[in-house]
Structures are given as C-alpha cells and as structure tokens.
Amino acid sequence: MGRRLVKAPKVYVRDSGICHALLGIETLDELFGHPVIGGSWEGYVIENIAGALPRRASCGYYRTSGGAEVDLVVHLGAGEIWAIEIKCSSAPKVSKGFHLACQDLRPNRKLVVHAGNESFPLAKDIRAVTLPAIVQLLARSS
Question: 139: how many CB neighbours lie within 10 A of its CB?
Fold first, then answer.
C-alpha cells in the first residue's frame, strides 16, 4: 500500500518574540520551563533558514499518514533536496519517521539542526548541525 500525504498543513509561529509575548513568557528561565520551548525553537530555526534560502529555493513540511515526517524539506533547485529535522537539544536523535520520510524523499542531505554548539556526524548519512552552520551551508549553496 502506498503512502498517503497528510492534507492538513503544519502551522508555525515564525516570530518567536511574538509567540513568547502572547504566552506571557518574559525570561529565559520561563521559556526553558514552558512546554512551548520545542515549538518555539522550531519556529526560530525555520525563520532563520527561510531567510537564508537562495531565491530559487522553497521549503515545506512533509508528513504521511503512515508516520513518515520531516520538519523541513528544502528544495534548492536542480533536484537538490535537503531533509532537515529540528531538535531543541544538544544531543539530538532522529525518529523512525525521519528515516521513513527520507526513503520517500531521497534527499541529497540529511541534517538535524540542534541547540548545541558543535556540528558532528549523527549517523552514516546524517549530520547534526548548529543553526549558524546550516545558514552558512545555505549561503554556499546559492
């Protein structure tokens, strides 16, 4: 049986400052103790990546009803696709859903943007990168 795409779009609040203000979060301590931190980090990373994309590039979210999911799929043009998972952790792990989605998408790069300070190999073909590192990678791809 083939995979069916989920039709409902994923909604992001790309301005984390507005998100925090609406929730009454005023300090980093309040943010770190709030359940919105993962979504806030995800929106912040997506906003930074979207701002660094070359003109010809586009991005979106991928999810199937079978559980395959990637937080951000970047199409850079000329068939270049990056699958990007976003984790608010300095020790990120990818889920089975990410691996399934990558089987579907066949991306040229598989990246996990994490909240740590160093980039490192996460698996044979997956690299954990910092937010500044992925912005630099995108700048080089233009």
Answer: 11
